Amino acid sequence: MQVRLEPQGKQLTIAGRRRVGDLLQSLGILAGTVMVIRGDELLTDDEFVADTDEIELRAVISGGVA
User: I need a labelling partner for 32 at 20 to 30 A (CA). Which of 6, 7, 16, 23 fits?
Assistant: First the structure.
């Protein structure tokens, strides 16, 4: 699968079908710190991504009211 990390602009190729949570763990990324996006669909940690998928991992940025 093709994995794009944003906002870093980094592109990774990862082989095999896996659960989103397992993918994040293998990349050393804590669940809840990124949104996992496939097309226009937001994925949860228990969903599977296929070898042929293109996904984006977008950092979650939180802010408060000043």
Answer: 16
Which ranges constitute the DSSP H helices of the chain? 20-26
- Which class for 53: exposed (0-12), middle (13-18), buried (19 or more C-beta within 10 A)? middle
Element (H, E) at 6: strand 2-6
Distance from C-alpha of 56 to C-alpha of 59, rounded to nearest angstrom: 10
Beta bridge partners of 38: 41, 55
Q: Model's pTM, two decimal places?
A: 0.86
pLDDT score recorded for residue 64 = 63
Tell me the longest C-alpha to C-alpha distance in the chain: 45
